[in-house]
C-alpha cells in the first residue's frame, strides 16, 4: 500500500513526546518569525534548525516526498510570478542596482538585488514547510484535540479539528480504492493515456469520492448525535497528556528564539537585511 500523505506517523522521538498544544504554539511562533523577517541571517538559522528538528523527529524524507515536491512546484511558480509582475522589487527594497543580465535596458533586466530578494522568499518557504509537515505528521489527532480542550478550547471545536486531521488519510484510502475500481472497469489513468483523456477520466474518481465523503459525514454526524455528543459542557479524553518538562523547556526556547529573531530583524528599523 502506498504511504499516506500528511497522516500521523508514529515514532519514538523527542518531537513526538511533545504535546499537541506545545507543537502548535511552537509552529505559530516559527511561522510568525518567518512571516515578519526578511533578514537572511535569521532565515538561514531557522532553515538549518528546522532541518535539525526534522532529523530528530525520525520522519523519513520519502514519507513526505510527494508533498514536498508538490509544494516546491508551486514555489517555482511563485518565484516566476514575482519576477514577471515585479522584476525590480529587489532594487526598490535595497536601493541599489547591480545588473547581471541586461535585457534591452528594460525593467526585466536581471539584477543581483532581485535574486537576493527572491532567495529570501524561497528561504521563507523552506523555513515554514518542514515545520508545518512535522506538526501534522507527528501529532496524534486525538491527543491534539485533548490538548486543545485542556487549554480552554471548546471540546466541540477540538473534536472537529481531530476529525479533520483524521480525514486526510481516510480520503486518500478512498481515492486509491475508487481509482483501482475504475481501472478494473477499463478506465485508464496511467501515463499511457494522453493528458486531456486522463483529466477527463479523473472525473470518474472525483465524483464518487465526493459522494462517499458526504456519506461518511452523514454517518459520523448521526453516530455522534445518537451518542449525545455536545450535551454536556465537559468531556474526558482517552489520549489526554499533561504538560511535561520537555514541553515547558521547548516553549521557553522558542520564545527566546522569537525575541532574538525580532531584535535582529528590527534593531535597525528595517526588516530587510541589506548586504549591498
From TrEMBL:
Intracellular or extracellular location(s): Membrane
Source superkingdom: Bacteria
Pfam families with a match to the protein in the record: CbiQ
Stretches that traverse the bilayer: 20-36, 42-59, 66-85, 115-137, 248-266
One Gene Ontology term, aspect cellular component: plasma membrane
Keyword line: Membrane, Transmembrane, Transmembrane helix
Membrane topology: Multi-pass membrane protein
Residue ranges that the Swiss-Prot or TrEMBL entry lists as coiled coil: none
Record's protein name: Cobalt transport protein
Organism of this sequence: Neobacillus bataviensis LMG 21833
Amino acid at each position: 500500500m502506498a504511504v499516506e500523505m500528511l497522516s500521523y506517523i508514529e515514532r519514538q522521538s523527542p518531537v513526538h513526546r511533545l504535546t499537541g498544544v506545545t507543537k502548535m504554539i511552537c509552529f505559530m511562533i516559527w511561522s510568525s518569525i518567518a512571516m515578519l523577517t526578511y533578514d537572511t541571517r535569521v532565515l538561514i538559522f531557522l532553515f538549518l534548525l528546522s532541518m535539525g528538528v526534522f532529523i530528530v523527529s525520525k520522519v523519513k524524507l520519502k514519507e513526505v516526498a510527494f508533498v514536498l515536491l508538490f509544494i516546491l512546484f508551486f514555489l517555482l511558480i511563485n518565484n516566476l510570478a514575482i519576477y514577471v509582475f515585479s522584476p525590480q522589487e529587489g532594487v526598490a527594497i535595497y536601493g541599489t542596482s547591480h545588473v547581471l543580465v541586461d535585457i534591452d535596458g528594460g525593467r526585466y533586466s536581471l539584477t543581483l538585488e532581485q535574486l537576493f530578494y527572491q532567495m529570501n522568499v524561497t528561504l521563507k518557504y523552506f523555513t515554514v514547510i518542514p515545520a508545518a509537515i512535522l506538526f501534522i505528521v507527528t501529532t496524534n489527532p486525538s491527543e491534539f484535540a485533548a490538548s486543545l480542550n485542556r487549554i480552554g478550547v471548546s471540546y466541540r471545536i477540538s473534536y472537529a479539528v481531530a476529525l479533520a486531521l483524521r480525514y486526510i488519510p481516510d480520503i486518500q484510502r478512498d481515492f486509491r480504492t475508487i481509482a483501482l475500481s475504475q481501472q478494473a472497469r477499463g478506465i485508464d489513468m496511467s501515463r499511457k493515456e494522453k493528458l486531456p483523456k486522463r483529466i477527463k477520466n479523473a472525473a470518474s474518481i472525483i465524483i464518487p469520492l465526493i459522494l462517499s465523503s458526504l456519506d461518511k459525514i452523514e454517518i459520523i454526524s448521526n453516530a455522534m448525535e445518537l451518542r449525545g455528543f455536545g450535551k454536556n459542557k465537559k468531556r474526558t479524553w482517552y489520549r489526554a497528556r499533561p504538560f511535561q518538562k520537555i514541553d515547558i523547556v521547548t516553549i521557553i526556547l522558542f520564545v527566546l528564539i522569537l525575541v532574538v529573531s525580532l531584535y535582529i530583524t528590527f534593531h535597525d528599523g528595517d526588516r530587510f537585511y541589506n548586504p549591498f
